[in-house]
Specification:
The structure holds two protein chains of two kinds. Chain A is an all-alpha fold. Chain A has 15 helices and no strands. In chain A, α3 (31-43) runs antiparallel to α4, α7 (99-111) packs parallel to α9 and α8 runs antiparallel to α9 (133-145). Chain A starts with a helix and ends with a helix. Chain B has a three-stranded mixed beta sheet with strand order 1-3-2. Classes of the chains: A mainly alpha, B mainly alpha.
């Protein structure tokens, strides 16, 4: 069992599954083994098997809240949200402060657009597991959906300041980018961005594609950690462009560079209107 | 410039609008890294899907736009949680380049470093494009052919052009100057496609 848990903790689900299946064969009524096997199936996307095994766990141990949580998660993953809600509520009946049940029920309700209820559950979950990155992400996404952008960004910053799995960190960064984009577009066409795009068009005009790529990819790498586009101060330096630049300036160079390299690539921030105006000015030779 | 589009293509664009809630914007660009046309699918907050046409291929716009709409419709036909796009990053690049390391060291003797760097990029992105796009392309071609007979002439012309552009890759000189791992995979994908 210890070997299986160690494998699960390292994310080696396929290997853990084999060990757990052998254990389950030998101990068909051991609900701990079956619970871990069910979660392993669930993480491997074998959802039918997961639901079958976890339902068996509930028969064997009807007062074991974690089995209802795992079953709820498997139902949610297989798109059976009504059953997921029933299972997760049952877990909370048995253990009202179970943070996993609170968080997962919040996630299912948020998926259904019931954001206020989801936020309440996430907040309760956070009290039990402070700084849990998944709960922070759930809170941020729900607040964003309700238009509470500052609040959403606050939770994302908190998530990124702590320890989270790389995949979740990337999702958090993407969400921050989306929030920045919404804030940016609030005031319509941004003339400052048009100016930066025009400068980038001029800068790239007579340079070979290899140089455009160098600048673009360097900004893209820097941008992975997030560019502050709201601060107009030139606080970023990259080796392929002269002088310090503001976040928005670099974002515009990235957009223009990518438009030259492969216009179908979505850099995660839409500057199409600003770019189009800059391109028209550039082609007319104005400014 | 794209002057006018066939009725069949306009009908497909309308279907995209109905199914996705967003219209299509067509832009011509001087060149694309691969292919005759490419699409940027609109995310939340973007008003249009954008189809980019290589400016040398605007005479085929009726077909190319219809084909790209096929990609958009296929994407939106999937449940939201399954709408994934392939990505490549530093990790995938490292894995890919590690696989052709030995073959590249042989080519280094024949191709100057700056040109080899460009070629490696082209091979890498070209193969990703083949792997991720061609299976869908086959389905889209079949769909266009059966549902939109008015586009068949343009479809034929475009596929003939793509075929013609692909033939030079069969030259033995190209084979010698390309890592075998990439060459075999790419030619096999082309063979299956055509």
């Amino acid at each position: 069992m210890e070997q299986a848990i160690a494998l699960l903790q390292r994310g080696r689900y396929a290997q853990a599954k084999e060990v757990l299946e052998r254990l389950a064969e030998k101990n068909p009524d051991n609900y701990i083994v079956l619970h871990n096997l069910g979660m392993c199936y669930s993480d491997l996307g074998m959802l039918e098997q997961a639901i079958r095994v976890l339902t068996r766990v509930i028969h064997l141990a009807p007062s074991f809240p974690d089995a209802y949580v795992a079953l709820g998660v498997a139902y949610a993953r297989s798109g059976q949200e009504d059953s997921a809600i029933v299972a997760l509520k049952k877990a909370l009946e048995l253990d009202p402060r179970n943070p996993h049940a609170l968080r997962n029920l919040g996630a299912v309700l948020a998926k259904r657009g019931r954001y206020e209820e989801a936020i309440k559950l996430f907040e309760q979950a956070l009290k039990e597991l402070p700084d849990d990155p998944r709960t922070l992400y759930g809170l941020a996404a729900a607040h964003k959906a309700l238009g509470n952008l500052d609040e959403a960004d606050r939770y994302l910053k908190r998530l990124l300041a702590g320890e989270a799995l790389p995949e979740l960190r990337e999702k958090a960064k993407d969400l921050r980018r989306e929030i920045a984009e919404i804030e940016f577009k609030k005031h319509g066409l941004r003339i400052d961005a048009v100016g930066h795009c025009l400068a980038a068009l001029k800068y790239f005009a007579n340079r070979p594609l290899s140089e455009v790529k160098k600048v673009t990819y360097e900004i893209a790498m820097l941008g992975r950690e997030g560019l502050d586009i709201h601060d107009p101060r030139p606080k970023y330096r990259i080796s392929s462009l002269p002088g310090p630049r503001s976040g928005l300036e670099l974002l515009c160079y990235l957009y223009v560079g990518m438009a030259k390299i492969d216009p179908s690539v979505d850099i995660g921030f839409d500057l199409s209107e600003e770019y189009r105006m800059a391109l028209a000015l550039f082609q007319k030779g104005e400014l | 410039m794209v002057s006018s589009l066939p009725k069949a293509t306009l009908a497909i664009i309308e279907t995209v609008r109905e199914k996705t809630g967003k219209g299509i914007k067509i832009e011509t660009v001087p060149n694309l890294p691969v292919g005759l046309a490419k699409t940027k699918i609109a995310r939340e907050g973007m008003d249009f899907h954008t189809i980019f046409l290589g400016e040398s291929y605007t005479s085929l716009a009726g077909y190319l736009v219809a084909h790209e709409c096929g990609h958009i419709l296929r994407f939106f036909a999937a449940p939201e949680s399954e709408r994934k796009v392939p990505i490549s990053n530093e990790r995938t690049r490292r894995i890919a380049f590690a696989q052709i390391q030995k073959e590249l060291s042989v080519l280094k003797a024949m191709i100057p470093p700056p040109a080899l760097t460009e070629l490696v990029e082209m091979w890498y992105h070209g193969l990703i494009h083949q792997l991720t796009s061609q299976p869908a392309d086959v389905m889209i071609e079949r769909w266009l052919h059966s549902e939109y007979p008015d586009l068949r002439n343009l479809q034929r012309k475009a596929l003939d052009l793509i075929h013609k552009q692909t033939i030079p890759a069969l030259d033995s000189k190209v084979a010698k100057m390309t890592p075998r791992t990439i060459y075999i995979a790419s030619m096999a994908a082309n063979y299956a496609f055509f």
